[in-house]
Specification:
Elements: H1 12-38, H2 43-56, H3 61-89, H4 112-115, H5 119-132, H6 146-156, H7 158-199, H8 205-255
């Protein structure tokens, strides 16, 4: 097996996976400041504040500052977003039919409770056991056998490994947006309750639309986050078996 240098692939999806959640969080932070200062807020009022700052900064410095702030926020929240999103989205596993029968506490990445009954999971576990001469492979650090499988995939087929990396980047982006939508749900509910108590009347149509919209988006993103994370694991296992099968077929003629 030849070792060689490969540049770290930075794709548009990796960039958007940081910038897009970061921009949404920036809008939510401004909305929170707006709510603290005025007692009420909407996405429109927060957006107008950001536009005002952008205009004050000039034709290019203002937009650049907004993009830079979104990138900083996105990178700062990236290490925690997946763990928190997993904890908050695990209850959504009770909605799809194929995960409904599993206990919520068992549906933790890489979802061994879900995949343990699959034949390909047993084959991947057996492959890792044979390659590493270690039984059980659960003694290895990390999420076994997923972590070790992904490392082996990088050695076998960098192209398939990059496919798994792209899927992970997509999951990270959805996780960051899901976490932001949860915060937006809490913020919008707080605004609606605050307006109702302050004015002793029905909240405005705009705040009610904001509340129901973010609740719907949160549900969709929660289900989508779980679905894509399951796909990330199962397609990584499939790619490992494909690459290993191709390797065995490639060396078979040489032995003959």
């Amino acid at each position: 097996m030849k070792a060689g240098f490969r540049p770290i692939p930075i794709t548009l999806l990796d960039f958007l996976g940081v910038l897009l959640p970061g921009w949404v969080w920036l809008l939510l932070f401004v909305s929170t400041v707006d709510f603290v200062e005025t007692g009420s807020t909407t996405p429109k009022s927060a957006w107008l504040r950001i536009v005002a700052v952008q205009n004050d900064g000039g034709t290019w410095l203002g937009p650049l500052a907004i993009v830079f702030a979104a990138l900083v926020i996105g990178y700062s929240l990236k290490p925690l977003s997946m763990q928190i999103a997993q904890q908050l989205s695990k209850y959504a596993f009770k909605i799809p039919r194929r995960t409904r029968s599993f206990e919520i506490r068992d549906m933790v990445f890489p979802f061994d409770a879900f995949f343990s009954s699959k034949e390909y999971h047993s084959k991947v576990t057996s492959l890792m056991t044979r390659l590493l001469s270690l039984d059980p492979v659960s003694d290895l650090p990390g999420k076994v056998p997923f972590s070790s499988s992904k490392r082996y995939l990088r050695l076998l087929s960098p192209m398939l490994w990059e496919e798994s990396e792209r899927m992970e980047a997509e999951v990270r982006m959805i996780g960051g947006l899901f976490l932001a939508s949860v915060y937006a749900s809490v913020l919008s509910l707080t605004v609606v309750v605050s307006d109702a108590l302050r004015f002793r009347d029905v909240p405005s149509l705009e705040t009610c639309v904001w509340l129901f919209t973010v609740f719907f988006v949160t549900l969709v993103l929660g289900i989508g986050f779980n679905r894509n994370r399951l796909h990330e694991v199962e397609y990584t296992y499939m790619n490992v078996l494909l690459a290993e099968g191709h390797r065995i077929e490639a060396i078979a003629p040489e032995k003959n």
